[in-house]
Amino acid sequence: MQTDAFTLTIHMVSSLDGMIAKTDNSVSWFETADHYEKGVDLTEEATQAFLKTIDCYVMGARTYEHALELSKSYGWAYGDVPTIVVTNRELPIERPNIERYSGDLSVLVNERLKPAYKTVWVVGGAELANEFIRLMLADEIRLSILPIILGDGLRFFEQFGQEQALHLLDVRAYKSGMVELVYELKK
């Protein structure tokens, strides 16, 4: 992890075979759980405390649309945290903490995010996350792997197109069977 004040984290949930959504773009399989006795218990209190450390979320248009749809049943998952939707499309903005951005990702990071925030999470989708990695704008990748093989769907790293060295920062196994890998991107 960087030693200075700003960290941009790519966060992705995937199946063991590297899928981040089914072919129909559904993620109902996110509820998949198992029981791993030696795993860490993920409490609601610990999760909420951790989420409070995130200053800003960045997401693509399809992730935003999916989150909006889910919010009808479960509420807006990102709370009042500032959220930037990277898109060239006109999308409905239903909360005052959400804004659209269209333009150069380097400008977004260096001129908008770094001066205003300390901890920024890119939470989807694959194209946007991969572009942050390709441009060397991301500092770390947090990959949460669920105990399921989907066999088909949208891959996190579909034809990434370049080699990227990583440094393992942390590995954590949870009682649910989820494994979290945290890698620093070597720059």
Strand order of the largest sheet: 5-4-3-6-1-7-10-9
Q: Are there runs of 5+ residues with pLDDT below 50, and where?
A: none
- What percent strand? 25-35%
Portion of residues in helices? 10-25%
Q: How many helical elements? A: 4
**CATH architecture tag:** 3-Layer(aba) Sandwich
Q: Number of DSSP strands?
A: 10
Structural class: alpha/beta
CATH class: Alpha Beta
Order of helices and strands: EEHEHEEHEHEEEE
Q: What is the radius of gyration computed over CA atoms, rounded to a whole number of angstroms?
A: 16 Å
- What integer is the average pLDDT? 93
Query: What's the N-to-C terminus distance?
Result: 12 Å
CATH topology: Dihydrofolate Reductase, subunit A
Estimate the global geometry from the Cα principal axes: globular
Number of self-contained structural domains: 1
Oligomer: single chain
CATH superfamily membership, which one? Dihydrofolate Reductase, subunit A
Give the biggest beta sheet: 8 strands, mixed
